[in-house]
Structures are given as C-alpha cells and as structure tokens.
C-alpha cells in the first residue's frame, strides 16, 4: 500500500475482517484486504494506492474495481482516480476502513486473477515434516498469513502465478510417493480473517529437497518450484522433549500467564483427558481481590493497546507529570510497553489504577476511551460476560475462591508436567492456540537447539490481553 502525504505524520494501519453482509447489501464483493488506517494528523493523507490482484485483461472492463469507505454511519463507494496494473488510486478525506471491492457481475466475465503460492514448513515431528501450501490472491500480505501460523517457517520462493476463481487445483510432489491432502481443492478468492492451508504435503524427516507443482483442473501446470528443506531441518537429537521444555520455563509460566488463559488451558486439558475434573476444579479458584485485580489489569491493557502511538506517548507523559501523590518517576515509564505501563499503574495506584488511567485519558482528550475503560473495569459486568460465554458456571461465579493467581498457575503447570511429555504437549499446544504471544515469549517451539531451554524469555514487546 502506498500513502501520498501532504505533510509529515505518524501512520498506523492493519487489516481487519470484512463484514460480508454489508458488502452484499451494496451488491459488491471483496477484492483485497480491508485496511483500518489511522493517522496522527488525518489531513496529512491525501491519497491511497491500494494493491489489487486483477490481470491486465480484467482491467479492460470499465468499472470493475472501486474502493469502499466504511465508517460508523455506514459505507460509501469511492470511484478510483486511476487503476494501474498493480494498484487502485483514490483520494481520501477521512481515514477509517478502506478496501478494494469488485462488481460481481463483471467478475463473471473475467475469473482469472494474479495469484501467489505460499509454502510454510511446520516444525518436524519424529517421523514426518509437513509443508503447508496456500493458494491466495497476490494482494494478500505474506506477513498476515504468517501471523496466523506462528512457529512455522516461511520458505522464500518465486510465488507468482495466475489462478482462476472457482476452478479446481491440485498439488503434486517430486519425488512421488508422499501424501498430499486434499487431492484437489476449488480456489476461492478470500481475504481472512483465517488463512488455512489449501494443501498439506506430508514428507519424511530425511527429505532434503522436493519439487512442488500446482496443476489446474485440466492437468495444466500453472506453477512449479524446487523447495530445499536441508537448511531448515533441525536434527532429531537437538529437539527437546515437551516435558523438559515445560520444566525449563516453569517459573516464567507461573509469573506471566493470566487467569483468563489459565481457565481456557484447564478446559483444554480436561477435554483431552490430561487432567481430571477434580484437578481442574482444584486449580480453578481465586479470591475476590484477585478477580478484581485481573479485571483492572485486563481493562487497562486493552485500553492502552488500542491507543495510537501518539496518544500512548501523551498518556505516558501525563502519567509522569501528574500532580498529587503518589508520583510516577520518569525512569519507571521510559521505554516501557503497554503491558509494563499497566503494571506501573497497578503497583503505584492499586485499586485506583482505573480511576487514574481514566483521568489521564481525559487529560489527553481521549474521553471516549476513558468511558470505555471505566465500563470494562466493572467486575460484575465481566463476570456476567464470562457466565454468558459459558467460561464459568453460576456456582463458580458466586462462590468465594481461595487460591491466588500464581498458586493457580503453579498447580496447572506442575500437575501437567507430572503426567509426562504427552500431557505437556497438550498444554503447550493449547497455550499456543489461546495465547500465542506468551507462547512466543516462553520460546516453546519444538525445534530448539540444545542448551537454549534455560534462557529466560525476553520482555514483552506487544501487549497481552
């Protein structure tokens, strides 16, 4: 994506899921990612160049592509100033949600788009290694797909090809004899929120090199590339068993895992029959003050993580210069991320952390965020939500619990570790699914060189909610 600026400003953008019902009401279909764009000075951005995946033949159709602008009031359609072979160019007055859309009736005339083939290598097991093959439009960000599959290795290769929407494709591997699943798959142009592999190729751990081919439904080869696995494969003797990896991060796990994640882990462990119902109930206890602290911690982190960088810096400055006692020193704030600033607020102001945070938000003119923070921090509302989502039962909500957060975490990790490597693997996989940020910080990937297990994880660089 290209930004044309009238002046210097700080820009933040991310991709967000499309709301298909909104597009259908307008008689349009998504033709690229939906971007949420923010700027410290909205007037600084005068033009956007959004990447598309249409072929040159398709672009001959007049009015094929346009840009949708989505706000709280609804959507509006922006006609392009220009459509280049790679981008749709539009002028912008207000920043919000922006994405390329296509006329579905004109799409019927031209089904072929510029596509890409992405290949990821999963951490090898004892007997096999798996290649995940993705068939995608070429304006899907590689980073976006990789973010959904933490722990895998993106194999850099020439990925460009042309793909026909609603046509069937198959993946073939040389040498032959390896399983590919499924045998064929219909290609659909989609833009998140999930990016599941289109195909998986199951190889032996001794395989060092393969040639991957993608063929269309007529058997024509549309893409071919040699894939080297030798440099990316980790020797079997250097892979650390799951129980050893879990033991190596025991202290960090106890100190850093949140109560919300622990409750979900317990559900996963019970579901997989790693722990018993009584073991789950023994761990799922905490006193009322710990519940309140967890609510405050979650609410403040949520608020800070949704501030722009500009507002986050202003918030920290206001925190240092806040009048009255207790005071926060500059060295307590400098270089800290949102998770660490939350800990400062809780340690200095205790139960008044939300009140102080809301006060600072009002000072920097983030009044809406201040109101939302106060609402999020109400314990009864949070408990109602947990009961509504069936995370806790009515008796769990009403009962007084006696075990604090660290004790609860300690019991979970120790109970699972005693049950061996298989049980530890269930906990590690569940943690990766529920809290990928903590999973990454604890460095629990299977293919770790010997001697690295005892390294303490680095400080969080992203806020955990």
Automatic annotation (TrEMBL):
Q: Give a yes or no for keyword Amino-acid biosynthesis in this entry.
A: no
The lineage's top-level taxon is Eukaryota
Q: State the InterPro entries in the record.
A: CARD, DAPIN, DEATH-like_dom_sf, FIIND_dom, NLRP_Inflammasome
Give the location in the cell: Cytoplasm, Cytosol
Q: Which PROSITE patterns match?
A: CARD (PS50209), FIIND (PS51830)
Residue ranges annotated for the FIIND domain, each copy included: 1-241
The Gene Ontology CC terms held by the record are: cytosol
Asked if the record carries the keyword Cytoplasm, the reply is yes
Q: What is its main location?
A: cytoplasm
Report domain CARD positions: 238-301, 341-446
The alphabetical list of record keywords is: Cytoplasm, Immunity, Inflammatory response, Innate immunity
GO terms, biological process: inflammatory response; innate immune response; regulation of apoptotic process
Coiled-coil region list: none
Q: What is this protein called?
A: Uncharacterized protein
Q: Which organism is it from?
A: Dissostichus mawsoni
Q: What lineage does UniProt assign to this protein's organism?
A: Eukaryota, Metazoa, Chordata, Craniata, Vertebrata
């Amino acid at each position: 994506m290209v930004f044309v600026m009238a002046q210097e400003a700080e820009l933040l953008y991310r991709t967000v899921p499309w709301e298909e019902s909104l597009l259908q009401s307008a008689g349009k279909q998504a033709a690229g990612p939906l971007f949420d764009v923010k700027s410290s000075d909205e007037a600084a951005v005068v033009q956007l160049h959004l990447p598309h995946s249409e072929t040159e033949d398709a672009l001959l159709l007049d009015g094929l592509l346009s840009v949708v602008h989505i706000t709280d009031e609804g959507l509006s359609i922006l006609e392009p100033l220009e459509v280049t072979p790679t981008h749709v160019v539009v002028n912008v007055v207000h920043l919000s949600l922006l994405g390329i859309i296509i006329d579905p009736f004109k799409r019927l005339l031209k089904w072929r788009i510029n596509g890409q083939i992405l290949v990821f290598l999963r951490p090898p097991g004892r007997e096999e290694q798996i290649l995940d093959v993705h068939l995608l439009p070429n304006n899907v960000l590689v980073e976006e797909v990789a973010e959904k599959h933490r722990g895998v290795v993106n194999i850099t290769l020439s990925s460009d090809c042309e793909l026909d929407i609603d046509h069937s494709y198959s993946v073939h591997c040389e040498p032959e004899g390896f399983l590919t699943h499924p045998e064929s798959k219909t290609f659909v142009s989609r833009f998140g929120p999930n990016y599941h592999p289109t195909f998986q190729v199951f190889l032996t751990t001794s395989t060092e090199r393969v040639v991957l081919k993608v063929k269309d439904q007529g058997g024509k080869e549309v893409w071919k590339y040699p894939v080297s696995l030798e440099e990316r494969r980790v020797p079997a003797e250097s892979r650390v068993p799951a129980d050893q990896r879990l033991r190596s991060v025991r202290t960090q796990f106890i100190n850093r895992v949140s109560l919300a994640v622990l409750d979900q882990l317990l559900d996963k462990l019970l579901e997989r029959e790693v722990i018993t119902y009584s073991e789950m109930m023994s761990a799922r206890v905490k006193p009322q003050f710990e519940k309140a602290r967890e609510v405050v911690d979650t609410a403040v982190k949520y608020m800070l993580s949704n501030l722009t960088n500009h507002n986050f810096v202003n918030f920290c400055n206001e925190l240092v210069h806040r009048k009255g006692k207790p005071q926060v020193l500059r060295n307590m704030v400098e270089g800290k991320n949102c998770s660490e600033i939350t800990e400062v607020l809780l340690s200095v102001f205790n139960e008044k952390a939300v009140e102080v945070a809301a006060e600072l938000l009002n000072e920097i003119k983030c009044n809406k965020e201040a109101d939302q923070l106060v609402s999020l921090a109400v314990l009864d509302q949070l408990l109602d939500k947990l009961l509504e989502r069936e995370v806790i039962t009515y008796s769990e909500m009403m009962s007084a619990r006696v075990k604090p957060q660290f004790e609860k975490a300690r019991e979970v990790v120790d109970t699972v570790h005693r049950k061996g490597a298989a049980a530890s693997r269930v906990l590690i996989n569940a943690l990766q699914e529920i809290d990928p940020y903590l999973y990454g910080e604890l460095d629990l990937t299977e293919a770790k060189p010997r001697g690295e297990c005892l390294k303490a994880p680095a400080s969080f660089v992203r806020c955990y909610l």
